[in-house]
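Try this one yourself first.
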């Protein structure tokens, strides 16, 4: 009888043991450590009335810089597999797309004799600027 109980306990323990590392302090499977690429810091600093304000990441503002493209590619190599493994990612993506997919028009601004405004059909990445000579004039983009 004792042998049967011992075998049952061992089988239950074997079936319940995680196939991945377990973090006993958190009581859940351990997450793999993400190793992010090193981000270069520049030496740029602005001088505002005698106060130096460092801007070590200004080099990232130049989106045409091959170093920026390489940095983004390296970051994506770390985050994309992690994000792709999230179980509810597809549902969240579909819901956010549905929420963002609606036409919108910004408040027009009168400059001189012309009206300028932005208009987005729904999922455009940027809202193009449109111009009209007046409220009832034909649209010019």
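Now uncover the answer:
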């Amino acid at each position: 009888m004792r042998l049967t109980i011992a075998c049952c306990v061992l089988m239950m323990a074997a079936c319940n043991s995680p196939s991945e590392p377990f973090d006993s302090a958190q009581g859940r499977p351990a997450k793999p450590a993400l190793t992010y690429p090193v981000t270069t810091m520049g030496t740029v600093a602005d001088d505002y009335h005698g106060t130096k304000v460092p801007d070590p990441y200004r080099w990232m503002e130049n989106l045409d810089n091959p170093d920026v493209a390489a940095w983004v590619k390296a970051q994506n190599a770390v985050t994309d597999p992690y994000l792709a493994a999230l179980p509810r990612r597809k549902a969240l993506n579909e819901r956010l797309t549905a929420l963002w997919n609606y036409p919108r028009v910004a408040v027009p601004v009168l400059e001189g004799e012309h009206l300028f405004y932005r208009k987005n059909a729904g999922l455009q990445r940027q809202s193009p600027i449109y111009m009209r000579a007046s409220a009832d004039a034909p649209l010019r983009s």
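Discussion: Confidence is low (pLDDT under 50) at residues 1-20. The first strand starts at residue 22 and ends at 23.
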